[in-house]
Amino acid sequence: MKRPLSQVTKIVLVALALSAFGLLRAPWEDAIRDDLVENQLLLPPPAESAIEQMSQSALMGTLGGLRTLVSTFLVLEGFDHFSLKDWEELRNTYQIVTSLEPRDENHWRDIVWHLGINATANMELDKSLPEFERKRRFQQYALEAIDFAERGIQQVPESAIIRQQLAEVYREKLKDNCKTAEVYGDLIGLPGAPEYVRRFHGYFLARCPGREQEAYDYLMALFREGPSQHLPTLIKEIQKLEELLEIPSPERIRAVPRQSPAQRRASKNTLPGGIVIP
Question: How far is CA 156 from CA 57, 103, 108, 152, in A?
């Protein structure tokens, strides 16, 4: 004997059916619209950004108060795609999730992490694909993650967690020191941003070709704030820049007293997850 569907399941199925109906009728409506535009009976469609806003509004209007319920259902479905390493379906699922709840920064952060970190890592390790295809998909997933992050920041301009995840993609996957420095710079002063982003902005700026003098001035300003900023990594970066920029000896910072192992452990500068800047 079959178990009857729960009320929640029925609601979700109805919501998905409405969405499916909209997708099925879209090509037919597009063809009619194109004919009307061609015969000058209808104005051309608005810009792409406006269309996206209209689609999002229509989706929200159709689902109404069910948005959170459907979004939760899709996030669970997205986890299944993650478990199966079905990155395309995961991306498509989060396209809908972020449209349903565009102000939830966690959704944006999660898809940036999935595509920019997990999917790219999968391409680095998956030997079942030819090397050229793994490289192509690696680049594709990284760029898609960046696109999601940028759209998320447009929706939630003060979000620190979206930018932190974006910085990780640039830092760990694309090895782009200039963009990493830029994102850490954008993080400075945002609500909830970690204190370390001020230093990391300078560290990666020092690794950005042509920005060495700017990085030196910036890190020296931090150093002059006092002992709280006299961390081994910051001092090491300044000393490397002093050599590179040929700063006169009298203007160089003095050597820092050797620290005990306990002091080094206490002052070690790490990123979330235990990543240490060398």
Answer: 17, 6, 9, 6
**Radius of gyration from C-alpha coordinates of the chain:** 25
One-letter amino acid for residue 116 of the chain: G
Q: How far is CA 265 from the centre of its chain?
A: 30
Token couple for 149: 């992050």
pLDDT at 41 over 80: no
Q: If we measure between CA atoms, which residue out of 95, 111, 90, 129 comes closest to residue 165?
A: 111
Side-chain half-sphere CA neighbours of 52 within 13 A = 10
Cα atoms in the 13 Å half-sphere on the side-chain side of 216: 17
**52-95 pLDDT, tens digit each:** 443 554 555 455 567 788 889 899 999 999 999 999 999 999 99
Calculate the CA 112 to chain-centre distance: 4
Closest CA to 100 of 58, 160, 141: 58
Q: What is the pLDDT of residues 228-249, one digit of tens each?
A: 999 999 999 999 999 999 999 9
Q: How far apart are the first and last CA of the chain?
A: 63
* Rounded distance between C-alpha atoms, residue 175 and residue 234, angstroms: 20
